Amino acid sequence: MLLEAVYHRPKLNWCYAYDGRTIHLRIRTKRNDVTAVSALAGDKYIWDQSKAYVPMTIMVSDELFDYWECEIVPEYRRLKYGFLLESGKEKYWMTEYDFLKQPPENPDRLFEYPFINPTDVFKTPAWVKDAVFYQIFPERFANGDPENDPKGTQPWGGAPERDNFFGGDLQGVIDHIDHLTNLGVNAIYFTPIFTATTNHKYDTEDYMHIDPQFGDIDTLKKLVKICHDRGIRVLLDAVFNHSGRTFAPFVDLQKNGENSRYKDWFYIREYPIAVKDGIPTYDTFAFEPLMPKLNTDNPEVKEYLLKAAAYWIEEADIDGWRLDVANEVDHEFWREFRRVVKKAKPDAYILGEIWHESSPWLMGDQFDAVMNYPFTNAVLDFFVDGTRDARSFANALSKQLANYPRQVNEVAFNLLDSHDTARLLTKCEGNKDKMKLAAQFQFTYSGTPCIYYGDEIGMTGGHDPDCRKCMEWDTSKQDLELFSFYQELIALRLKYSALRTGKITFLSAEAGSGSLVYTREDEENLFIILMNNSETPAEISASVQVNRLENVQTEETVNLKDGKLAAKLPAYGCVMYRAIQ
């Protein structure tokens, strides 16, 4: 037994309260090294009467490790615990201090979860578990009110450029809300809608006003009300890392320099502020002079931004915030942000834009979730670029699942493209079957999926600005078959809770192969999903614990012999089965 590979700590994703009564324990061992793990657990004040061994099961495995998990509901909301590791006849008891060859005589040196204090339990919004998001770039979705078009607005459908305008607005979204309802989505994420100079609005001029080219607060209220009436939640984009160059405090700073009362709202390295050899003398987003970085440690800055965060929830009834460049803002600001937002709306969704492992922000005191780019990268590597095989893909996602508590994984924001990337169909080089296979995995995986506007009708586009084309509203130019595919996929996910919050298990993911078999399971249903991520047909098989299945797509019943499941799949084919009695 390789004890050097064994890891646990009594916090974070390794030991946490899933709800007000339940504690999840996890421990890591070398892959295929340990044959059984049990948690030795009980109440420290009545240890001898309460101690018991709780079997643990392998939650997931990656290329190096097995991650074991168990669920315990302690009678008195506190837990003292250690682990028993077994490999054949070899046994070790793991305490907080040592590995022992005999059971610990008393609990003093075991691990401890002191008490499940309700205020410490990381609660994520329940509705997000059932959400299917649709991302809208407002300037390019639909022009519903030509009266508010900015000067120089171009005819709808022209070539997108970094600085041109087509007149998209909030009224356009209202006018086309039936499209979203018919598609079946129940949440919208809008990129920024507040006053700014650019078409993308990430250079905020005024956090308290809707950009006039999009409408006004009454338009937003009307849109949110219409969405809520149809069961659609609304998420807005908050750009709190930086402002725009036309933000009034920065205008004052440009005018008055060191004498500006707003000089401490920003990070100035040198006066007068200028751009030297392409590098501003003040901190910015990247090196973009139009986007000066805000000093969120400044009390006035903090007060202004937190006021905006609460205002749009209280005034327009929005359902949460997506936070731009979230990892470059200080943690204490986000802690205060969470308190303000959750006070205004307890089930508001707080979503951070972070492209990497994000545990420091996902401890229950800051964000509910992050944009799940590790998921995005793994899916694109496997299904689109072919740089991962099935084994590597399953390992990457398993590692990702093990990184976070279950409640975080349940509300992770799973996207395959966005305004920041090339479109999915373009990444697939126009191969619609490949695109569909990636989407089928996205919609049958843990977390909330998001569709980038227009993907559902076959829109294409390379990197910015090409990915920000005008939405195609001419039905003769829409891929209606693809639209129906997304409709069915969304309906299937919303129908079965197992596809949203059920346990995921990779049954078969072989090295050097594109064949993937995995399950989603909860108390109500078990789904077995087979995928052929290959340009040639393949027969895929797996051993399962059931003998009767229903093909979800065809409703055909399949009877198995000795739990042996096999299916012949076309190139980039997928079949989903549901176990039946």
Automatic annotation (TrEMBL):
Keywords: Glycosidase, Hydrolase
UniProt-listed SMART domains: Aamy (SM00642)
InterPro entries in the record: GH (IPR017853), GH13_cat_dom (IPR006047), Glyco_hydro_13_lg-like_dom (IPR004185), Glyco_hydro_b (IPR013780), Ig-like_fold (IPR013783), Malt_amylase-like_C (IPR032091), O16G_dom_2 (IPR045857)
SUPFAM superfamilies recorded: (Trans)glycosidases, Glycosyl hydrolase domain
Glycosyl hydrolase family 13 catalytic domain sequence ranges: 135-493
UniProt superkingdom: Bacteria
Family recorded in the similarity comment: Belongs to the glycosyl hydrolase 13 family.
Record's protein name: Alpha-glycosidase
Source organism of the structure: Paenibacillus chibensis
